[in-house]
Design brief:
heterodimer; A: mainly alpha; two-stranded antiparallel sheet; two-stranded antiparallel ribbon; 14 helices; 4 strands; 74% helix; globular; B: alpha/beta; Rossmann fold; 2 domains; 6-stranded mixed β-sheet; 4-stranded antiparallel β-sheet; 9 helices
């Protein structure tokens, strides 16, 4: 049963537009994009044991590439933009990873945070991407008959990106590369003693995670038609870390469930009709308290609920 | 017999402390070479330098004639320098077999082949089974490694080392915390491994050392004070004063 869950979820996602309103379509697309982002961090945190607090840098960079690489008043090539966003994010991840992976534990957290804030201030304080106001994507990219501006087309594009990312990471987990990452997570010293060049493995995982975060960022930019520096800020890195903790570390489906739960809770707490004006204005408060409660009651995340029932 | 692993003038300083001072030793295949000494004599530091975990401050290490002093640990391991740890460092959540297969995969990595499952690698599976069989763990292959007895975990530690197909075994207190029956089993295992390997054994259990060792080196304060056949070591005055007499 559990084996088929991802397939069932993918089929449901494919059938969903039939019953969705424009508002809920937008919400589901947002969840799908953040699920890709969360999966990319799960590769680092859950699979390799590298806790990064700067993962939004690659997400935001992918988003900026989508806008900056698009022509001013013509539609860009969707495939080229997606690949460019992933390539730029991967390059920055190669640079950040090569330096930060020489450190461990809390130092690694701090160095990744520092590199992400550096990228944040480049976009915030210079005119590269419109400064603190951000920059608009005037015309959505296309690829043949696929139109990035069409809500339904874009919905399927985002779902395809999620299925592709999930499938890639599921294969990776079972492969020798994935097993080596798992070994590094548990005991890196032992892996070196066995003959694994662990630094290279970690760097490869870091670069791949950066590229996938860039893919998610690129999709978000095309969806919203606007990017701003906040996409690279540490709050965004913290939020995606919360998503995978909320869902349950060490499981791919945990990252997806966490992304959905986080977005839905945020939506719920920010709706005045449901929680009243005061609480809706201060949704961070209720969301924060809820996450604390979840973490306290479900140390294995939401995925732990499913496992406990079996 | 010619040496497989050699070190000359090997020195390690930690700030003002010289943990290992100008150690020159040879390790030959088919020999168990025990290194004994009190705590702080520099035995573990010596193993850490030979395996590449710690860089040497001075001196030279050669493996079958190649200068490996500057090689990182992973490269040395792939070239045949295997080690076990004093503190058990297995992967408790994996099965006993998976622990060994993972070790074996270091030399058969193909990390880019994402479409191949790790369990499909026949070579590393075969090597892992062989390592488990020679370490006497074949019956426990499917067990979670964390559920093994202390002695079983120490055996697995050796099996994981064997799964890397080493030529040199650097064993850091493999008998630590073992009962007499487990000790006997481990010594039998070492005797079986001896023909194909150069074995460096750091051990506190003197009875075991004198039973198994072909050569014994005594270290005191980071320096070698004697290196000879067991009988000669037993009758060496300096050694008796410095070490054996205290027991």
């Amino acid at each position: 049963m559990a084996r088929w869950l991802p397939w069932i979820a993918a089929l449901l996602l494919a059938a969903l537009p039939a019953v969705l309103t424009p508002y809920t379509t937008d919400l589901v697309v947002k969840i799908v994009i953040f699920a890709v982002f969360a999966l990319s961090l799960e590769l680092l945190v859950g699979m390799t044991g590298l806790v990064s607090l700067g993962h939004a840098a690659f997400f935001g960079l992918g988003a900026y590439v989508a806008v900056l690489a698009s022509p001013e008043s013509d539609p860009g090539n969707l495939l080229v933009l997606l690949l460019a966003a992933m390539a730029v994010a991967a390059l920055y991840a190669l640079f950040v990873g090569a330096l930060s992976l020489r450190t461990k534990g809390v130092y690694f957290i701090m160095v990744t945070l520092a590199f992400a804030q550096m990228a944040y201030f480049v976009f915030h304080d210079t005119k590269v991407g419109g400064g603190s106001d951000g920059i608009y994507l005037n015309v959505r990219p296309v690829l043949g008959p696929l139109d990035g501006g069409n809500k339904l087309h874009f919905y399927y594009l985002a779902v395809a990106a999620l299925v592709g990312t999930y499938g890639l990471l599921a294969l990776l987990r079972r492969s020798r590369f994935g097993h080596a990452l798992a070994g590094i997570r548990v005991n890196e010293q032992r892996m070196r003693a066995a003959g694994f060049a662990t630094y290279r493995y970690k760097l490869a995982a870091f670069v791949l995670a950066g590229a996938l975060a860039g893919l998610a960022g690129c999709l978000l930019a095309i969806k919203d038609g606007v990017v701003n520096p906040e996409l690279l800020a540490w709050q965004e890195s913290g939020a995606v870390l919360l998503m995978i903790i909320l869902g349950g570390l060490g499981h791919l489906r945990g990252a997806v469930i966490g992304a959905a739960a986080f977005a839905l809770l945020k939506e719920l707490y920010a709706t005045p009709a449901l929680v009243g004006n005061f609480l809706a204005d201060h949704w961070q408060l209720t969301l924060g308290l809820t996450i604390i409660a979840f973490v306290a009651l479900l140390p294995k995340g939401l995925i732990g609920l499913l496992e406990r029932r079996r | 017999m010619s040496a497989l692993l050699s070190c000359s003038g090997l020195t390690r300083r930690f700030g003002g402390l010289t943990a290992v001072n100008g150690v020159t030793l040879d390790f030959a295949p088919g020999q168990v070479h025990a290194v004994i000494g009190t705590n702080g004599a520099g035995k573990s530091t010596l193993i850490n330098m030979l395996s590449g975990e710690l860089p040497a401050s001075d001196g030279r290490i050669t493996l079958a004639g190649d200068d490996i002093t500057g090689w990182p640990q992973a490269r040395r391991a792939r070239a045949g320098v295997g080690r076990s740890y004093q503190r058990t460092t297995i992967f408790p959540e994996f099965t006993v077999f998976e622990n060994c297969r993972l070790s074996a995969q270091a030399a058969h990595a193909r990390p880019w082949a994402l479409w191949e499952t790790a369990s499909a690698c026949a070579t590393s599976g075969r090597i892992a089974h062989e390592a488990l069989a020679s370490a006497g763990l074949a019956d426990l292959a499917g067990r979670a490694a964390g559920s093994l007895s202390h002695g079983g975990k120490r055996q697995l530690e050796i099996a994981m080392c064997l799964a890397t197909e080493p030529r040199v075994l650097l064993l850091d207190e493999p008998l630590a915390g073992m009962g007499s029956e487990e000790t006997d089993r481990m010594l039998e295992l070492l005797a079986r491994l001896k023909p194909g390997h150069a074995i460096l054994l750091v051990e506190h259990d003197m009875d075991a050392v004198f039973r198994i060792a072909d050569r014994i080196t005594v270290m005191v304060n980071g320096e070698v004070i004697a290196s000879d056949a067991p009988a000669a070591i037993r009758s060496n005055r300096d050694v008796q004063v410095a070490y054996l007499g205290e027991h």
